[in-house]
Amino acid sequence: xxxxxxxxxxxxxxxxxxxxxxxxxxxxxxxxxxxxxxxxxxxxxxxxxxxxxxxxxxxxxxxxxxxxxxxxxxxxxxxxxxxxxxxxxxxxxxxxxxxxxxxxxxxxxxxxx
Length: 113
Hints:
Elements: H1 2-22, H2 28-45, H3 61-88, H4 103-111
Helix pairs in contact: 1-2
């Protein structure tokens, strides 16, 4: 039901993004896995918790389409950018790091040594 996924999805994304900026950079995926695991355990242990706080959302098909189209376009743009980097630098995406030549990548590696 979209009325529940509105706030749970936002809370799950915020819960893994905040530690990335304030505790350990470069560990977003690890934080994401931990928050999803905790959410799944909580939701299965206390399913009645989610019945009291419904947030009514728009059920307008046009709004859903616009948001979905923006997400699709941004994902296609990211895929095109990554393919461009792979081809321009002659990388193997299964074996090589794609962004090891960037300043941000080097900073994260140095912070996590």
